[in-house]
Amino acid sequence: MAELVQKPGFIYIDSRELNTVVAVSKETGWAYCQDGTKYSPAEVEILKRSGGVNMAVHLLKREFGGTLLAAELKR
Predict the structure, then answer these.
(1) What is the pLDDT of residues 7-54, one digit of tens each?
(2) CA distance 4 to 54
(3) Are strands 31-33 and 38-39 parallel, antiparallel or unpaired?
């Protein structure tokens, strides 16, 4: 994978769950993954409340796009 150039105005998170780096805009709250998947501020909030993103959700979003509306953790 190419080395990530860090830009000012972003917070960079090394996601072990997704095996990628996520750049979060300090200004807008949008989260951008190295694979091109992006999450809106509302989606980021949904994921925070549900304990974070998992690979299955991420792969679905990457392949099909769309918007996360809710997340439920089934036990």
Answers:
(1) 899 999 998 888 889 999 999 999 999 999 999 999 999 988 888 888
(2) 22
(3) antiparallel
